[in-house]
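Sat 14:20. Reprocessing the chain from the morning session after the first attempt stalled halfway. Input below, unchanged.
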Amino acid sequence: MQSLAIFDFDGTISKKDSLKEFLKIHFGFKNYFIGYYLINIPHLILLYLGVIDFSILKKRRIKHFMKNLDMNKINDSLEIFNKVFFKSEIKKEAIKEIEYHKENNHKIIILSASLDFLLYEWCQKNNFSLICSKLEIIDNKFSGSLLGNDCNGKEKVRRLKSLVNLNEFHIIYGYGDTKEDKDFLKLVDKPYFRKFKY
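Finished this time. Tokens:
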């Protein structure tokens, strides 16, 4: 039987948040900072107080930046993102662990709350399966809404179980770095929490 390795992405494999870095590239740092932080100060306070959860703030930010954005107009920024981010912002320890699994012919799944268009090319190049959050697209434009639920916390478990028969695997490894990853880490034989430092 084949073994399976499941990796969260942001903070586990990457040093920085993939969406933040893309937004900085495409919109410029000033527009990113205003749209990501300044206009959301009231919601950041509510988040800090525990009145709302992070998914509400994430959806607001995505709608602000991505609503009515033509898919074709992000190609240049996406090309820069793929060249820069995956070269400089990936943890060396994580790559070593991924290489171990590849060498042993383990199936690798990236299970992430990041957006599909940010991780798609990297996963395709490396033959990784990708389960992540997706943006709704209407007439070749992003609507600003997620297609389904944010792939985080219990939603990671639901998606994983609906798309993968975990009973088919001999040993399942899991890697995560936040409390939202602990739900899917309960499903695996060998869970690793915040294993990669750099």
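The CA atoms of residues 5 and 101 lie 7 Å apart.
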